[in-house]
Amino acid sequence: MTTISLADLANITGGELHGDAEATVTMVAPMDKAQEGHVTFLSNPKYAKHLPECKATVVMVKQAQLEACVGNALVVDDPYVAFAKVAQALDTTPSPAEQIAPSAVVAADVKMGANVSIGANAVIESGVELADNVVIGAGCFIGKNASIGANTKLWANVSIYHEVVIGSDCLIQANTVIGSDGFGYANDKGEWIKIPQLGTVRVGNRVEIGSCTTIDRGALDDTVIEDNVIIDNQMQIAHNVHIGYGTAMAGGTIVAGSTKIGKYCIIGGASVINGHIEITDGVTITGMAMVMRSIEEKGMYSSGIPLQTNKEWRKTATRVHRIDEMNKRLKAVEKLMEQKEES
């Protein structure tokens, strides 16, 4: 258990402390469940009414909510960002590996920096470079000539194929595969002929990738994930996709090959993005969207039918199937109206 004083919290968050600097906390908790020894935060003003009843040792708030606090308060610019920083400081998640396990299989020519850890039964093939403080979890596979940057952590059973490049300060969750073959085939009179995928995957710095996600290697050029990208669980990113700086992608999303996604985009969960298109910077796509064409202007985009009762949905579906018929009838009515106006 990690213990942090409120004075240290102020330094971590850059906030202004109002209260006992020597008081300590050991964990973050929601406002309605926080007790002595806990730190909580108020990010939504509508919950400010609960501040007088809060039992936390300290509450992180904006300046406007300070007067409502009855105990220690830490005034910050953004309580949610402050919560993230404090949660990191109090994080007790264990390392994926400690030192180098005797059962790890490491090729003789692997280049390792200082303080590298490799878990049980991991396989590190010839030509691999592991920078300082890299952590490879149990059962991982790192293919020939791959490179992993400083402070990057891989949880158990991650597979990094040959020649893949992973930057520094990345976090890759369990069972993810990076660098597998893209879906490339030619059809010769009904017979599928595999096209070798000759590119690789280049992942930037400070990238986080969830569990059970697959990122395919490029067919000729590389698949590229730029710095500061966050990718959720169970996603498919096809060959030659390029994802721009600071983009966030929620779980279950599928991106087809050779698509370029710009900087600071937000892609909602279970979205499907067509191949060979471009999405400009600053686009938000809500969940379960189907993106069939390029998006050239920033903004929020949606598709699909929101949840309805089954009865309402059946009516909607029936009307959708009759759209063509209804359109023809509408045009016929418009034509009659025009003829009457001309006569």
UniProtKB/TrEMBL annotation:
GO terms for molecular function: N-acyltransferase activity; UDP-3-O-[(3R)-3-hydroxyacyl]-glucosamine N-acyltransferase activity. It holds the Pfam family Hexapep. Keywords: Acyltransferase, Lipid A biosynthesis, Lipid biosynthesis, Lipid metabolism, Repeat, Transferase. One of its GO terms (cellular component) is membrane. Pathway: Bacterial outer membrane biogenesis; LPS lipid A biosynthesis. InterPro entries: Hexapep, Hexapep_transf_CS, LpxD, Trimer_LpxA-like_sf, UDP_GlcNAc_AcTrfase_non-rep. NCBIfam families: lipid_A_lpxD, PRK00892.1. This is UDP-3-O-acylglucosamine N-acyltransferase. It comes from Vibrio hepatarius.
